[in-house]
Amino acid sequence: MEFFKCSIGGEVYGHGVTEIERGIAERNGMKVEEYKSPNAVQEKGFNFDDSRIMRGAWRNESNPDICKEFFRCLAICHTVLPEGEESPEKIKYQAASPDESALVIAAKNFGFFFYRRTPTAIYVRESHVEKIGQIQDASYEILNVLEFNSTRKRQSVVCRYSDGRLVLYCKGADTVIYERLADGNNEIRNITREHLEQFGSAGLRTLCLAYKELHPDAYESWNEKFIQAKSSLRDREKKLDEVAELIENGLTLIGCTAIEDKLQEGVPGCIATLQRAGIKIWVLTGDKIETAINIAYACNLISNEMKKFIISSETDAIREVEDKGDPVEIARFIKDEVKKELKKCTEEARSYFNSGSAPKLALVIDGKCLMYALDPSLRVMLLDLGLNCHSVVCCRVSPLQKAQVTSMVKKGARKITLGIGDGANDVSMIQAAHVGVGISGMEGMQAVMASDFAIAQFRYLEDLLLVHGRWSYLRVCKVVLYFFYKNLTFALTQFWFTFQTGYSGQRFYDDWFQSLYNVIFTAVPVVIVGLFDKDVSASLSKKYPELYKEGIKNVYFKWRVVALYAFFSIYQSLIFFYFVATTTLTAKNLDGKIFGLWDISTMAFTCVVITVNLRLLLICNSITRWHYISVGGSILAWFIFVFIYSLICHLFGRENIYFVIFVLMSTFYFYLMLLLVPIAALFCDFVYQGVQRWFFPYDYQVIQEMHKNELNDTGRAKLLEVGNQLTEDQARSYAVSRLPPQISKHTGFAFDSPGYESFFASQIGVYAPPKAWDVARRASMKSRLKIVLQK
């Protein structure tokens, strides 16, 4: 946030070109020339350049009194806390938002340096007030602070000058300030409105500043009501707002400020990538409509090729009705206008779609119109229009409206919504969405604390959704389907057994086999899949964002996929039971006896454990050593368990299983079944996956084939990539850090003086300038060497 321009008394001050203006010029094929004064002040939060009002030159302007009130409003009307030394160069400001901090920094650079705050007063060091070059300290008694909130959209301070003069300073959104201005002086109002539109078109965030001189008697009467409202135990906030309305009227407009909120790095590219992934983006902002539109252009959210539907309350017809001052008539008229515009835009959108060559559509609506569009009678029309548009921008919206729009899409369209924001005014939107993402930055940590995920910059949303989010979707789908498959397979083998027992209730497996099937024998491999499985690398996921559309269409978790897994479960369970049961009719052990129930069930259970674990490797897209360890370990755990259990089961009254595995493993039949049953069970899977990959491939399988000869972007490759991007200074520092740390074997002053490191660096062809701390380091090493020798 940087103070960039301002309008004082109908005059614009500030030179320079914003990022948004540069983008507009590039789109129109124009070249913008930017001039920067060599004496311009450079400070974080202040990017203003105009010699007409800097360094006391404002006293020579045609409106010095208005300029003085403007600067005092910036220095007094805030809740900023100063920290550090009381000097302009070293002081630090702690503010609730970067906007407020930027305004106080601007006042300091204009010569109104706010340096101290007490519970009842603000101290400002004012320069050039009486005459240019003169500095004086002024204290202002703070009588009341009417704080900013999302409903009021303004902040006011009642202060008393040292001469007893009472003044109310107010700053806020132009919509609320203009409603509370005194009659008359329409020329400045109209000129400032034009300046506001001009600033908004440049992508600047605007605030209007106004003041009002108070009569002592009127203030005392109002202050009694304020104290009563402040001490109220019920509806305190509501009563405070009502009392504030009594004094925040009849204001005199001073001017407006324009603050540049620069886009974070990578935002346009991130938004373009997310749109390619099939994600619809709705921007809900508190900025003016002109600012919001130009920021949307800068973010690649809106382009010149799009057809834009703009529903705004800033029309001549609405202004005429608002000038009459009848709130009932204003509400009725705006609602009718919004309904008419929504119906017109919807019909136009349908005509575009019916024509066959429809351009991309964009909807822009401001907060006042949105308030009526969210009415139950119109919200369906608004939602239908918004869903048919490629981009939607809602400007001048309150936090409540952000939450209402999110809930409308969430419940009305039954879509999965994600809310992302960086400030306290985004908390309600983040909480209303299915998934909330908070950006930790200058706006505070409220959004982060209320969110499900926290990121440092907006561009990281690309990795969160297209890489980790997509991988997570694939893993969850596989884990859920695999659990369904392995349990259905296991249960169906027992189901087929009931047909052979006449539904007598005889169990097929031992109780311990059933209990440990999900706990030990098939538990770890599926966890490994849920942690490590990925179809394509992170770089390819971002290179081909269209892969994300498969998740939007729910390709991997349809009923067809569930039915396919159920089919394989039925097929394999039939193989496990009937293949094993049928072949054992003629099989005998070494004693010449045929196999019994527990021999068959143990054989079948062994085949189930081996096949279910091996099938997991078939459905994996990436197999690591952890997959092999988990699958092999699970199968090994079964054999270890059954060996031990067969020896000690008689101690628990389970004589049926006693020595069964040893009898089975002493026969050739056992090893033949271990080879044939898994092959027969997995044959159908193998054929299906081959046919599907060759003739009906998923998108990610096409990408896999395209890049099958490329190295995966593992950690080693990432390190090499970073190493190749080292600057010359970084490469030199790295080479110096690789120097031998031992004490020099050479003697003499030349090797114990500054430049020891530089000498050895020169031996390997790297220039390293000598450092002053070499002396102390070499001296400390020398003293430690003497101590060792003495010992």
What would a concise description of this structure say?
This protein has 791 residues and is α/β, with parallel strands linked by helices.
Q: Secondary-structure map with pairings?
A:
Blueprint: E1 2-8, E2 11-13, H1 19-27, H2 64-76, E3 81-83, E4 92-94, H3 98-109, E5 112-117, E6 121-127, E7 135-146, E8 154-160, E9 166-172, H4 174-178, H5 186-201, E10 204-214, H6 216-230, H7 236-247, E11 252-260, H8 267-276, E12 281-284, H9 289-298, E13 307-311, H10 316-324, H11 327-355, E14 361-366, H12 367-373, H13 379-388, E15 391-395, H14 399-412, E16 418-421, H15 427-432, E17 435-439, H16 446-449, E18 453-455, H17 461-500, H18 511-521, H19 524-532, H20 538-543, H21 549-552, H22 559-583, H23 597-619, H24 625-648, H25 660-665, H26 668-695, H27 699-706, H28 715-724, H29 728-737, H30 749-752, H31 756-763, H32 773-790
Parallel strand pairs: 12-15, 13-14, 14-15, 16-17, 17-18
Antiparallel strand pairs: 1-2, 1-11, 3-4, 5-6, 6-7, 7-8, 8-9, 9-10, 10-11
Helix pairs in contact: 1-9, 2-3, 5-9, 6-7, 11-12, 11-13, 17-19, 17-22, 17-23, 19-24, 22-23, 22-26, 23-24, 23-26
Overall description:
The chain is of the alpha/beta class. 52% of the residues lie in helices and 14% in strands. The chain has 32 helices and 18 strands. The protein has a nine-stranded antiparallel sheet, sandwiched between helices. A four-stranded parallel sheet has the order 12-15-14-13, with helices on both faces. Helix 1 crosses helix 9. The longest helix is centred in the middle third of the chain and has 40 residues, at 461-500. The protein is elongated, with a radius of gyration of 37 Å. It starts with a strand and ends with a helix. Mean pLDDT is 83; it is low at 714-723, 742-761 and 770-791.
